[in-house]
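Posting for a labmate who doesn't have an account.
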Amino acid sequence: MIAETERLHEVLTRAREEVARVIVGQADAVDQALAVILTGHHALIEGMPGVAKTLLVRSLAAVLGCEFARIQFTPDLMPSDITGTNVFNLKTSEFVFHPGPVFTAFLLADEINRAPAKTQSALLQAMQERAVTIDRQTRPLPPQFTVFATQNPIEFEGTYPLPEAQLDRFMLKIRMDPPAADEELALARRLLGDEAPEAVLAAGGIRPVVGREDLVRLQRALMAVTVRDEILGYAVEIVRRTRAHDAILVGASPRGLAALLHAARAQAAIAGRDFVTPDDVRRIAVAVLGHRLVLRPEYEIEGEEIGAVVARVLAEVPVPR
């Protein structure tokens, strides 16, 4: 068991080092994205244009030896543009299936909120079931299938916001903010030299640390990370407290509890431990719970930040020793 967690930590450390060849800063975003991949879930990435959302997912795909596909969501995008369709072949007089971009390992759903609900639901079905049904035939997706959906936090004209029930299907909401001053200076130096991030990635400047099949074994190795009963009780109390807090209208669901536990487990593995601590739960709580909670209207009017509300919830729950 210890050997499995050590191997997992070694691979994650190497993956972070390789991603750093392309992504400057964004350490929390990289760790959270790795947590999503390790646990077999999906993530919503929110950030202004130009903060390397697409580059992050492309880099992770290259480092983990997986295929990458990208869908630009637009108001006229149809479900078949995502899943694929059967096309009649006149030569053979048969229908031939042409798979859509969803048949990949890592899928970037760029600006998912720009497509109508019918198209969004086609992707969300694939996320939930890891399969798509076309003309009454169900086709499985790869076991590594992971969706990273992006949203622009400053532009809402012509968008179709994801309902709370659909947001709940994303394990994490990863925030990517502009880099710090020293990080942006380092990025500027790279952009003027031979180490521009896009050029490094295009030239194969980052090496895969595992293969596609190895990723499935790493996901299973995460099960070796121990979660004590006290940590379970701590996570349960945090989730239950969100349902009774004065500022929260709709609290986290049991799916949110599962996401919190899985994400905390991945945080422990990234840190090189084979056990979860309360700090692992607290560190990932905002990313897991923030997009699942609905604030009461009076708190929204006052401009209450969801992160501050989650911090107050955490402060109210006793930390286990």
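Reply:
Got it, the structure tokens are right above this. The longest helix spans residues 2-19.
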